[in-house]
Amino acid sequence: MAAMSAAVGATIPFAHLMPAGLIPAAFAQSEQPFEIPGKEGLVILNDRPVNAETPAHLLDDKITPARHLFVRNNGIPPVTDGIDVDAWQLAFGGESVAREVTLTIAELKKQFKHYTYQLQLECGGNGRSEFVPPASGNQWSIGAVGCPEWTGVRLKDVLDFVGLKDDAVYVAYYGADIHASGDRNKVPISRGVPVEKALEDETLIAWAMNGEDIPPMNGYPLRLVCAGWPGSVSGKWLNKIVVRNQVHDGPKMTGTSYRVPCKPVAPGTTVPDDEMCIIESMPVKSLITFPKSGIEHAHGEALSLRGHTWAGDLTVSDVHVSTDFGTTWKKAALEAPANRFAWQHWSAEVEFPQIGYYEVWVRATDNAGRSQPMVLPGWNPKGYLNNACHRIAVQVV
Amino acid sequence: MQKALTALLLFSLAFLVACSKEQAPEKTNNAAAQAVVVAEPEIDPVTGFKMTGDWELVRGNCTACHSSKLITQQRGTAQQWLTMIRWMQKKQNLWQFDPGTESRIIAYLADNYPPDAAQRRAAIPSELMPPNPYLAESASLN
User: Fold this and answer.
1) Contacts of residue B118 in chain A, CB cutoff 8 Å?
2) Which domain holds residue B103?
3) B129 touches chain A (CB under 8 A)
4) pLDDT tens digits, residue range A222-257?
5) What is the b/e burial string over A246-257, where b = at least 16 CB atoms within 10 angstroms of the residue's CB?
6) B122 touches chain A (CB under 8 A)
7) Which of A164, A238, A282, A334 could form a disulfide with A168 if both were Cys (CB 3.0 to 4.6 A apart)?
8) A278 phi, psi to nearest 5 deg
9) pLDDT in tens, A171-197
10) CB burial class (10 A; 0-12, 13-18, 19+) of residue B32?
C-alpha cells in the first residue's frame, strides 16, 4: 500500500480500508496487481506479507465462506499451483516421536477416519489497533476471525499411529511457507500446543474447508486446525509435525510473540522475557454481524440484531445487548454450538425511545462466568487478547 | 469536593509529567540510533506556544481577546479548531480571516495541539458512523 501511495504521488485517503481486489484508478496501469485471489471485501492491512481482515457485516454467514475468511501470513506462501496434492508429504519427527514417519495426503485420507467440524479461528492479535500505547504488528480491528467447516483426520489418530514417547510434552508444526526476507534457511513461524491440546477430538489435520480445497492463502493443501487458541497454532501449508520433550522453541514461540505478561502490567510497561507467558485459550468474544455499522433506522420500528459468539476452549452461556452505552442490558437468544469450538449464533430485537444517535453493544459471558469488558482489557506489549465488546453505530431517524 | 477535584487534577498532572520524563530517554536513544534528530520546538516563555511554523501568526490573531493558555490546554482536530474559530467569529467578535491565513492558523493548531491518543477506548471509526443529521450546522474545512 505504501508503494501504491508513492506511485500515485499522494496519500490515499482511507487506504487501510481499501477492499482486497480493488486497485485505485491511478494504479491500474501498473504491473503490480493488488488483490487476493478468491477473497472478497477484505480490508488489506499489509501486502507483504499479505494480511487482510473481514468487516463485521461480511461475517454474517453462520459458516464463514472462503471468500470472507481473513488472511494472516507471517511469511510468503508456497507456490501450490498445479502441485500433485495426493503426493504432498507430512513428516513426523522431534525428540519424543516414537517413529519418524512420512505420510502423503493420499495416505492420510486412506488410513484414518475423516471428521468434519465447524471450528472458529481467531488471530491472537485481533483487536490490536485499539491498544494505547500502540502495539506493533498488523493493526487488526475486529475481523481477524472466522468459523468455516473443516474436514480432515484427527491429529490424535495420526499421533497414535506414529507413537508418542513418555516424555512428550508439546506438539508443533512446520509449514512450506518461506520467510518474508526470502531467506530459505529461516523459518517464518513454527508454533505448537501442549500434548493434551493436540490430542483433543477437534484438533484436525485438514485438507478441506467448506467441502472444497483450502484457499491458497489459508494453507492449501494441508493445515492444522486447533481451535480456541490463537490462530497461529493452526499451522498452514503443513509439511512437518514434531513431538517435543520440552515447550516448543520455534520462531514466534518466544519473546513477545503470542505471549503476554504472566502478571498484569500497567500500559506501556517493558516486560522482561521471563515474565511473559504463552497465550493459551482465547477469551470470550462476540460480534454484531447484522446490521452493518452506520445505518439509519426508522423510529418506531424494532431493529433485529444478530451475530456470533465464541469463548476459546469454553462455551458461551449468555449474550446481552445494550443500546444505552451499557446502562441497561437485554438478554439475547443464543444457540448451542454445532460442535465444540463452533461459533454460537445469537439474535435480539431492540427498540429506540426517540430519534438520535445510538450505539448497539454486545457482551458475551462464558461458562466460567467471565464477560467481555466494555473498555479495553489489560494492556500487553504486543496487543493481544482485546475482547472488548463490539459496537455498532445506528442513527434513528 | 472542589479540593478533592483539584487534588486529583494535580495528582494526574504530576503523574503525566512523571510519565513524560520517564519516556524521554527512550525517545532520545531511538533518535540517536536512527541518526535523525527531530528537536522538540522551543516554547515561547511569554505565550507558552510551540515556536514552530506559523506560531507568531497564531499569537497575533488569537491572543488579542483571550489567553494563549486557552489554546495550549486545548486539543483538537483541524475540524474542531475550525469549529471553535467559527463560534468565536459568530459570538465573540473575532474578525474574518482571509482563506490563506485561516488555513495556516488551523494547520498550526491541528499539528501542534492534536487530540491526545491516550484514551481507554476510542469512538467508533468515522467510516462506520451513520450520516450526521446536523451536518449543515458544522463548519466546513476547505
Assistant:
1) 132-133
2) 41-137
3) yes
4) 999 999 999 999 999 999 999 999 999 999 999 989
5) eebebbbbeebb
6) yes
7) A164
8) -65, 135
9) 999 999 999 888 999 999 999 999 999
10) exposed
Same domain, yes or no: B81 and B61: yes
Q: Are residues B8 and B52 in the same domain?
A: no
Q: Do B130 and A130 touch (CB under 8 A)?
A: no
Residue A264: how many CB atoms within 10 A of its CB? 11
Quick one: B105 and B45 in the same domain? yes
C-alpha cell at B132: 450526521
The per-residue pLDDT for range B4-46, each reduced to its tens digit, is 444 444 444 443 333 333 333 333 344 334 445 567 899 999 9
Q: What is the pLDDT of residues A37-77, one digit of tens each?
A: 899 999 998 887 889 999 999 999 999 999 999 999 999 99
Per CB-CB distance under 8 Å, the chain A contacts of B125 are 141
Residues B107 and B49 in one domain: yes
Is B142 among the domain residues? no
Asked whether this complex has an ipTM greater than 0.85, the answer is no
If one counts every other C-beta atom within 10 angstroms of the C-beta of residue B44, the result is: 15
Looking at the structure, tell me whether residues B8 and B26 fall in a common domain.
Answer: yes
Total domain count, chain B: 2
Residue A328 has pLDDT above 50, yes or no: yes
Q: What is the pLDDT of residues A22-48, one digit of tens each?
A: 433 333 334 444 578 899 999 998 887
Measure the N-to-C terminal CA separation of chain A; round to a whole number of Å.
38
Distance of residue B26 Cα from the nearest chain A Cα, in angstroms: 11
Does B133 lie in the same domain as B79?
yes
> A134 and B117 in contact by Cβ < 8 A?
yes
Q: How many CB atoms lie within 10 A of CB B41?
A: 13
Residue B37: what pLDDT? Answer: 55
> Looking at the structure, do residues B96 and B129 belong to the same domain, yes or no?
yes
CATH annotation of A285-396: 2.60.40.650
Proportion of chain A above pLDDT 70, given as a percent: 91
**Same-domain check for residues B46 and B93:** yes
Output the CATH code of domain A85-278: 3.90.420.10
Q: Which of residues 17-36 of B touch A (CB under 8 A)?
A: 19, 23
**B119, B125, B133: residue with CB nearest A132:** B119
Mark yes or no for CB contact A293/B117 under 8 Å: no
Q: What percent of chain B is modeled with pLDDT above 70? A: 71
Test A294 with B130 for CB contact under 8 angstroms: yes
Interface contact B129-A393, CB threshold 8 A: yes
Mean of the per-residue pLDDT values of chain A: 92
